Prior knowledge:
Layout: E1 2-4, H1 7-19, E2 24-29, H2 35-47, E3 50-55, H3 75-84, E4 89-91, H4 95-98, H5 110-113, H6 117-120, H7 124-139, E5 143-147, H8 151-163, E6 169-173, H9 193-198, H10 201-214, H11 220-232, E7 237-245, E8 259-268, E9 271-280
Parallel strand pairs: 1-4, 2-3, 2-5, 3-4, 5-6
Antiparallel strand pairs: 7-8, 8-9
This protein binds adenosine monophosphate.
Adenosine monophosphate binds at residues 29-30, 36-37, 39-40, 146-147, 149-150, 173, 175-176, 183-186.
Amino acid sequence: MDVLHTKAEMRAWSRARRGGGQRIGFVPTMGFLHDGHLSLIDRARAAADRVVVSIFVNPTQFGPNEDLDRYPRDLQGDLRQCRERNVDAVFLPTPAEMYPPDAATTVHVPTLAGPLCGRDRPTHFAGVCTIVTKLFNLVQPDVAAFGEKDFQQLAIVRRMTRDLDLAIEIVGGPIVREPDGLAMSSRNAYLTPEQRREAVALSKGLAAARALWDAGGRDPRALEAAARAAVEGADGAEIDYVEARHPDDLTALEGQVDRAVLALAVRFGGTRLIDNAVFTA
Ligand code: AMP
């Protein structure tokens, strides 16, 4: 496995592989890898000849009072997991390598970045779009894998890729969960044992909404209420949002619907967790 630190090394690596006719699959991450990340590595592997994983805690997608300084890191563990998963190259740039001090250009998808997490994190998705664009330009992948766990991010990356005519296939991967239903996340490491037990309320809320959907419930407000009731029962849970929206363009839903994504963000102390479920007829 090649470990690459500079943009020049990354570009040269990809140029050589592409010149040899190999398809490159790419999984961008912020590290502290878990089975959700590994499932995306497998998806990229299935669609390409070579797999690149980037590990970069991107400062521009964190707000001023967020967890950039304490974001969990385990570089040796991450490299070991990548090696075990037969990753071909890991790209590990520093912030200084990625952002010259006078970097001024950003990428925005304002319609999709407005609702849901965009309300609580107004600069987050511009940071994501900008770093993903830069990483796409350096890695030059044929296919890139993103998790449905970050449903809004996936929708935004798909739209950005289409709008900017990037010749990259975007593949989504299903949410990987802990045995009790909690969606895997690097940020779960922040939870105290008690918060960790209560955090199952997110997936329980989604399950309650799914039961309603399966019984024929098609009112987005009722789906939201079912999930909200379950989350409100958890000790220490503070809801940022529980919202049903259109799964393609994240627009608001009214009346009876035949498809929806139910997305939620809940804080336990200083830890913000997100989860979602897609309902289709
Ligand atoms: P992160 O390192 O948290 O920025 O995530 C990197 C990629 O892994 C993103 O595409 C996430 O959506 C994806 N991901 C994170 N958690 C999960 C999960 N539990 N299941 C599937 N994909 C995930």
